[in-house]
Amino acid sequence: MHDIYADIDYILIDENKLQTRIQELAGQIEADYQDDEDLLLICVLKGGFIFLSDLSRKMKRPHALDFMAVSSYGSGTESSGAVQIIMDLKQPITGRNVLVIEDIIDSGHTLNYMRRTLLARNPASLRICTLLNKPSRREVDVPVEYLGFDIPDEFVVGYGLDFDEIYRNLPFIAVLKSEVFAHLG
Ligand code: IMP
Ligand code: MG
User: Fold this and answer.
1) Would residue 103 show up in a list of annotated catalytic residues for this protein?
2) Mutate to test the pocket of ligand 1, among 8, 50, 71, 73 (most ligand atoms within 8 A of CB)
3) Contacts of residue 132, Cβ cutoff 8 Å, sequence gap at least 6
4) CB of 52 within 8 A of CB of 41?
5) Which domains, ranges and CATH numbers included, belong to the chain?
């Protein structure tokens, strides 16, 4: 059997660091929304699913959840810039306090598209929470209200993030050995 742990070069952010930071983010979000009765967390699939589940479970205040899937990189590691909704929300967000939960902001195209699409539906408020940020890769400027970690320009996997749909289940953020990418030429 192929052991995915054997493909790891090094761990960039371990489980402990992730959970500590996510607890801080949950506290910050609860403080900022303490005067608001309504809060809807929107998870951007697939990469945001583990972050959403940990962040949501660290919060004590009531909040609703919904999911949205947008097109990503396919099997490569470079963004095409073209973004598409693959699965939309189950409910309207008009008048609601919406917080978008994303795994990583890289070029910024995905979140820029999400932001414009969701704003057009007239939410009461719209903020973005991303676990990871690669500032050196930004092509479009997107305001991000909650940020877990700035990371260097490395392709990372784990904690929801994939390479070719694999490695999402790793409980930390890691960089793969270069030979794993070799077949891409
Ligand atoms: P952006 O549109 O370039 O900002 O890219 C955002 C999306 O690309 C994320 O939601 C991820 O699905 C994917 N992505 C960007 N960087 C990485 C990475 O280092 N590892 C895995 N997926 C990534
Ligand atoms: Mg992906």
Assistant:
1) no
2) 73
3) 103, 104, 105, 148, 149, 150, 151, 156, 161, 173
4) yes
5) 4-178 (3.40.50.2020)
Does the pTM of the predicted model rise above 0.90? yes
Q: What is the CA(42)–ligand 1 centre distance, in A?
A: 17
| C-alpha separations of 156 from 35, 92, 143 in Å | 37, 33, 22
Per-residue pLDDT of the chain (185 residues; tens, 9 = 90+): 999 999 999 999 999 999 999 999 999 999 999 999 999 999 999 999 999 999 999 999 999 999 999 986 555 566 666 788 999 999 999 999 999 999 999 999 999 999 999 999 999 999 999 999 999 999 999 999 999 999 999 999 999 999 999 999 999 999 999 999 987 65
